[in-house]
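Researcher: Structure for this, please.
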Amino acid sequence: MAAPHKPTDDDSPIGMDPDADTDVVTEDDHELQTPRQFHVLLHNDDYTTMEFVVLVLMTVFHRSNEEAVEIMLAVHQQGVGVAGTYSYEVAEAKTDKVMRMAREQEFPLRASVEPVDS
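Model: Predicted structure, token format:
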């Protein structure tokens, strides 16, 4: 049986300096930033029914009936209302879903995405 091999400086991996700093790299003290937020806006028109807007708010934005009616009234009275606030990707997906639902029902309801002022 051969004697156990004792490691030497020549045993280091190719290209590795045996005297190099081999500390484990840890995450810096960088703060994680929350993603920028975006409002999904619903815009008033003369043809989309109030009932359909409430339905959209309840199904796409998971609003209660009371919240949906309140937002729908803001859309109706002020011309625009905030349906919800999300990351950009989620806001875009919800906007697309609203527009698809409106087209399927032949309503001209329009939704848009707007950055939240910080």
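Researcher: Any notable elements?
Model: The helical segments are 50-59, 65-78, 88-104. The longest helix spans residues 88-104.
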